[in-house]
Amino acid sequence: MDPYEEALKESREGTVIAIDVSCGAREAVFPSGYNPWRKSICMAVREPPTGGKANAAIVKQLSHFFSLPPSAVRIVSGASSHHKAVLLSGVSRENVIAALRQKGTA
Description:
Blueprint: E1 8-10, E2 14-22, E3 29-35, E4 40-44, H1 53-65, E5 73-77, E6 83-89, H2 93-103
């Protein structure tokens, strides 16, 4: 089993990814690792966590990574936290795993 699989939960709407975010990074990176204690995928964004800038960057970065429109990526919990749950609407868990294997380091 890929370690990233534990960070993914399939729902009726798509797949929810558990993410740990580092804001204000030098470089935007997804995935940037895996947190086995929280069972979440790490990511870094350049934007600061103020005024929703980091959340907007997360949506943009994930929509680009998974080739989705930004409207298909929604933060469902943790909007003001470093630990977030993000829904990829209409995307199966298997497709998320395949994208992580192809583009990421899973």
